[in-house]
Structures are given as structure tokens and as C-alpha cells.
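To whoever picks this up:

The nightly regression suite flagged Xylose transport system permease protein XylH as changed. Nothing in the input moved, so I suspect the structure step. Input below, exactly as stored in the fixture:
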Amino acid sequence: MTDDGSTPRPGDHDRHLPEDFMSTDGVNAAVPVAAQATPAVDPRLIVRQEGVAGYFKEFRRRLGSGELGSLPVVLALIVIWAVFGSLNSSFLSAQNLSNLSQQIVGTGMIAIGVVFVLLLGEIDLSVGSVSGLCGAIYAVLEVTHGVNQWVALLGALAGGAVVGLIQGLFFAKVGVPAFVVTLAGNLAWNGLMLQILGANGTVNLSGHDIVSRLYSTIYGQTAAAYGLALACVLLFLAAAVQEARRRQRAGVPYRPMSDIAMRTGVLAVIAFLTAYTLNQYKGLPLALLIFLIFIVVLDFVLRRTSYGRQIFALGGNIEGARRAGINISWIRISVFMIASTMAAVGGLFLAAQIQSASQTSGGGNLLMNCIAAAVIGGTSLFGGRGKTWSALLGALVIGSIQSGMNIEGLSNAIQFMVTGAVLLAAVVIDSLSRRTQKAAGRA
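Regenerated output under the current build:
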């Protein structure tokens, strides 16, 4: 029944579905009702009618229809922590987990940019080289040429944005496939980094510069970590209540207070447990705080702005997006600029982590780890589905594997094989999930 007591017509609910629950195939409208798959029901409506039982009913329905969300990566993270924690108690120590929260920031920042590109159904193979290039730009400007550290920082970020602009233009305007453009960029930007570093090949940071302080600063006051946890919970609660009231006034399905309270409670447990763990060692790392700010802000951009909706629309159905009047070229160029700028941010944190910019910066398995973090965290390789939080979850999985194996003294060869297996499992789960959703009429 609708809010005015009338019986809803077939398809009425489709007009009120949020983007997360809308079909993207555009086919069902021309198919007789009897031949269509069972229509999706907004979970807000189920929970409002059936209470907490409706929430679990909707959860089971989503699992049955292949809408797994972040569940696989959360379960994988629990298993990884349980295994390594049982093998060595130091893995779950406050010191190791605190160090882990700092070490994943560089890779996680780059992975956020990768998420944006993957949402278009494209790939960026240059983010590793771009991170090394921008780290070198900052180090050479600040250390070698004595440029003001803030100017050097802005120069490095601007360098990343320019790289994204160049690659985006070749992709969007010239029509060169993103794979080819960024593969060429991977080589070219690495060569430019070597040229900037010069014959010496390594520029050491002083440790007192702005980038080093952003990475190494830790707020030792107990109130800092707990205050951040409280702020996150209250912000989430306020946003959820405001959204529910807005949807209620508009006459569309909304989350009841019982559902909002349950979600807020889960977030509170996670937030305050994290704060407690950090306070058991040194406190709240500034790098982690900055990482979370980037995630929240860019998540807002993706889910709450017309620009973000255009990215999802383009990744889900490019022809439909074109017919809707979306500026395809602008979206593509801007997304590659975001990816390269985030690669620059990540490169600066990685340079601060090792206190230098060298010929090996941005190399090794960094590129694969960044792409793997985005995919393992739940971003689809097929485009149109993902969140910035995927970068955090994926980086945690990869960082936990590396940390646990280092503690156990296992070789890099074993780490590569395990990480590769986890990445393959994530892609397989994504493929099976899409197949199940199509069978259920949800994709």
C-alpha cells in the first residue's frame, strides 16, 4: 500500500528507487509484467513495514540476488586478522595495527583515484609512475632548489592534475583507449621522474618539511581519537536523520529510526574500538585522519552530487548517458585528473614514509597494489559500481597480508602469490555477483 492508502501500480516503486537499487539495462520497460523478473523493493519500505525483521529479510534478499556489497571484503579481513593473530599475537597488537593505519595511507590515497576510473569501466596504469613523479617534483623543489615547502607541495599536486589532463584529453578527445594512453604514460612519467631526479637519483627529505610532518604527526591526547570517533558517529547520525526526513517529506520510502539506530550503533562500536586501539599505542595518526577526510569528501561527491551521479551513469551505460545530455568528454577528462591528483597525494605520503624520493619511487608492485586495493574493496572492474570506502577496505586487506607475512618472515614471493590469489577471488566474486543480479533482473 502507498502512503495515501491506494494500491501501487506495477512499476510505481521504480520511480522512487534510489540510484543504488535502479536497474541499468533499460530493457524491462518494454517487457510484459508477467515476463519480468520479480520487481525490486526499496529496503526502506520493507524495514518501515516490518521493523528489524524486515531489515534481515532485505539482507537475505540482497545476498540471494548477488548484491553482496562490502560483505566479502569484510569477511576476508576478519579471516586474515584471525589467521595472523593466531599465528603471532603481535599482529593484533596496538603498535602493529597503529603502524598499519599509517602504512596504508599512501596506497589507499592512490586507490581512491583508481576507484573513480574503474567506475567509468576504464583503467589507469600510470598512477604508480605519477605518484613517483610528483614525489620527485616536491623533493627537488623543496630540498634541491629551496622552494617554499607549501609552493613545492602545490607544485607536486598541480603536476598530478596536469598529467591527468593530458591523458584525459588523449582518451576523451583523440579516442586513444585508456589502457594504451596510461600504459604509455606509465613509461613516460617514470622517465620524466628519472630526469628530474638527475644523476644522483635520490633526494632525501629533511623530516621537518610539511609532507613529512603530515605523515609522522600523531596526536597523543586520548581525547583526539575518541573525539574523532564521536564526531564520525554524530555526523553519520545527523546525515541519516536528515536524509530520512527529506525523503519522508517527499513521500518516498525512507529508513525508520530503528534502522538508523542500528547502523549508528554498529558504526559507534567500530569507531570507538579503533580509537581505543590507537590510544593503546601512541594515539591518532594525522595521516589516517587526512585519509578518512579524503574518503568522506569524495564519497559525498560521488553519492550526493550531480557530478557523481553522472560518473555512475557513464560507467553503467555510456549510450544512455549520452542520450541524457551528459558531457561525456568532460566527465572522462575530470575523472582522469582526479585519479592523477590522488596519485600525487599518495606519492607524497609514500615519499614521507621512506623520507626520500628515489629512482624506485612509484615502481615495484605499487601499481598492482593500488588497483588490487580498489577491486578487492568492492569496486567493479565492469564499471558503474563502487565507493571510495573500497580503497580503505582493500588497502587494509593488502596491508594486513603484507604485515602478517612480514611478521612471519615469509618472502615477497609468497606475498605476491597470496595477494594475487585474493585479487583473483575478488574479481571472480564480482563476476558471479553480476551474473546473479542479471538472473534476478537487478543488473
